Amino acid sequence: MNIKTKILVVDDDLNLRKTLVDTLKVKGYETVAVATGAEAVAVVEQGGFCLALIDLKLPDISGIEVMTHIKSIAPLIEVIILTGHASMDTAIEATRQGAYSYLHKPYQMDDLLRNIRLAVERQQAQEEILRLASFPRQHPNPIIELDPAGGVTYVNPAAEKLFPDIVAKGLSHSLLRDFPYLLPKLRDSQEQEGLIHEVEVGGCTYELHIFSVPEFGLIRIYATDITRRKQTEEEIRLLATTDSLTGITNRREFMRILESEMDRSRRYGTPLSLIMYDLDYFKQVNDTYGHDIGDEVLKAVVRLVNEHIRGVDIDARWGGEEFLVLMPQSDLAAARNTAEKLRQAIAQHSFKKVGAVTGSFGVTAFIPQDNASSLLKRVDDALYQAKERGRNRTEALVGGEKKDKQDKQDKQESEPNSGSAG
Q1: Which of 3, 220, 241, 255 is the most exposed place for a label (fewest CB within 10 A)?
Q2: 39 catalytically annotated
Q3: Do residues 360 and 385 touch, judged by C-beta distance below 8 A?
């Protein structure tokens, strides 16, 4: 904590003033305490304060009026309103008038200290912006200044080096292309921290911090190259959402997508189907040829599947040699046809060193009564049925009332379906 951080306490309760002063002193703040609004205005005129804690009910004028007066003297000072007698409307009005936050007495000291810390950080950030306004030329990151109409008035050397044509192109430059849409937001925003916007320029990603600096009659943009950070974020995202061996969706991410697609299907009444498959006797492949060869077979199977499904379909590794394909906008018949094509593609493929491999497929369709567990249970049952009936085949199960009819139809079938290996 910076010992020079100076806080003003404005409250007519002597005991509360003393408690706050003692507590803030322990936390490393320099504190001045007064009892009235007039005293508060007088000490703020002396300068140096970054934050004021103001009681809403004071003996002379209201806390909101005090806030208005001191902000007219020191616009960057942050204010936290404290009160024991006010409504939510008062709280909203206080923040609308520029208060950083509003705490109702009796407040928790931890809550107050957290609000103080955040308010001080914001005030210091604003001071840094204005401090840099005096020497943008020396700033290592690109700085672009515009007039309120959006005309480029200044670029520092760092910006000129990276974007040599930005003055000539103005708002048509790719770095500033979104500015016409951002300018109204900046004007309407009550947030003193300005706007943050990401834009891609020449294969790099820049984070733009856009501030209105009324003291200088300009809009300043600080551009930071975050390309490496975005790449790292994407790497982390891929690690969290994809299977490390095959590169397709992993189990956790699949569950998130499944919930989302079920909600969509339920809301709009669109079909949604699910395929589950695994490779027959795959343990023998690993035992005979080793896990490295087994891994190559799994990757080859995934490539085959991706060649035969649509771009909107989601293929995922469920675990081991077991996989799922989620098919939005597809009914049971379409999904069963796709599963049969996948089964045949695997059966007809010659895998390096291993030769022939087959797979068993289960298929089902989502019904509005389903949750993720019931849908997954049903497709797993269909896969189990395919294995029980000889493997290297496709079986489908329907949910709800249709299931009994389907079961009866299956019992009546004397011959395996067209996907059976016999």
Answers
A1: 3
A2: no
A3: no
